[in-house]
Amino acid sequence: MRIALGQINTTIGDLTGNADKMVAFVRQAAEKRADLVVFPELSISGYPPQDLIERPNFVLRCMAAVDRLIAATAHLAPAMVIGTIEPSEDGRRVRNLAIIAQGGKILAKQQKMLLPTYDVFDEQRYFVPADMEKLVYIGRTPVAFTICEDAWNDKSFWRHPQYDRDPVEELVRQGAKVLVSINASPYSMGKRAQRQQMFEALCCRHGIPAVYVNSVGGNDQLVFDGSSFALNAEGTLIASASSFEEDCPVVDLTTNTGENNANFEDENQAAYQALVLGTRDYVRKCGFQKVLIGLSGGIDSSLVAALAVSALGKENVIGVGMPGPYSSDHSVLDARDMAQRLGIRFELISINGLYHEFIRTLAPVFKGAALDVTEENIQSRLRGNTLMALSNKWGALVLTTGNKSEMAVGYCTLYGDMCGGLAVICDVPKTLVYKLCHVANQVLGPVIPESVFNKPPSAELRADQKDTDSLPEYDVLDAILHAYIEEAKPALEIASQHHFPIDLVRSITLKVDRNEYKRQQAAPGLKVTSKAFGMGRRYPIAQRFSE
What we know:
With 547 residues, the chain is of the alpha/beta class. It folds into three domains: 2-263, Nitrilase/N-carbamoyl-D-aminoacid amidohydrolase (4-Layer Sandwich), CATH 3.60.110.10; 278-456 and 515-519, HUPs (Rossmann fold); 472-513. Helices cover 37% and strands 17% of the residues. It contains 16 helices and 20 strands. A seven-stranded mixed β-sheet has the order 5-4-3-2-1-14-15, covered by helices on one side. A six-stranded mixed β-sheet has the order 6-7-8-9-12-13, with helices on one face. The chain has a five-stranded parallel β-sheet with strand order 18-17-16-19-20, sandwiched between helices. α5 (267-285) packs across α6 and α8 crosses α9 (373-394). It starts with a strand and ends in a 28-residue tail after the last helix. The model has no long low-confidence stretch (mean pLDDT 95).
């Protein structure tokens, strides 16, 4: 059997556009003499459709799009696997389906059984689980079709399986000779390798080949990397699709040969490409062409500018320098140098006059009060206002430049540097920012000056300010944050494991807890780690618990 891995980039709710793309891929698969073309989970609706599912007309139009797709491909030889939804008997939730069709007819339907409800997933809210799954014959071959989570419960691979049932094991007992898994599995660093290792274990355990097809593209906070693959019965890779782009490689399970397009073995390069793809798709799918970035001459804004150029092209990126009373000369020079190296438009707008007028206006009310963070935040908010004014005037989306380390401990200003439409690097710890900047210089040439790497990090909101005035070095801070946010470890365990002072760890974890109110008002950000701020991390704001 020859199977085409239809790795497509869908847009949520663009039912006609998604179906038209699938028609084009079926044609491509037919040219490659494929017997079957496999599309990702919910390829008709896009993933995750969230509360669109609660709109009856949305569900009906998904069904109509499937009918049009089946009719439009009736004359083409390959069978196809379509990810879609249909109403269920309970009248509230729907079925998450893989529809297998060929020659203008539906051959079978497979309903998803295991519904994840953790991290970014909330599928029990929307879907009804299948009671059982059955084999589907493609020609004479009995195939086990599963949908994403259905293949993620192998008790021999996971130390603590999350579900009582294992759909793959049940289908193999029925006589499956091939496993085909359709997926909408978001990217995070290290996850591509984890997926392949898990399916290698499945193939070796059950003695059957496996075809894994994943969605690709950015949908709001989630980036889907694709990275589809096929393995033989011994778990050896025999075909692979590119990461972070559409692809349609074919695998021949009779000869155990196929196209291999795997790329980005280095995980820092992969994370860079994930941010590029997430930025491009968010901007384009939201209907924008150009973006604005506040260029400070620092490492964070430099990375965001490089990512934007990689995603959208230099002609669609505008950098804005906004020096204030405490901005150093080298910051302005570095921002201008960075813009010139990238070839982007650069505007310099001083906030000095605005700042002093603001302070003068407030002086009668502030009389007798000492200078504090208030005056620092005024500078940041003036910059936010400036960027939003330009955004309104030019119709360009503002990209914020705060990293995960800053967002975690609240070193960001509401309605200031947090102003914008997309928080590109809000899931990128500061130590990773530096690594990704080196990747940017590999991808685009030496666009980030060496002086940007070497200067001490500073918000420059008061004289001689440095981040380390009130924070530990970033390698220490990021180690604490990773253990607390991604591994959910308590302060005492973190201090013991890393040999950090317990008072330091407690002060950092308290900052994380007390700044939830800021993060919930931030722009949506792109997920690249195992636990990002956003839809996959839900903490109350008004709460008293502390580690």
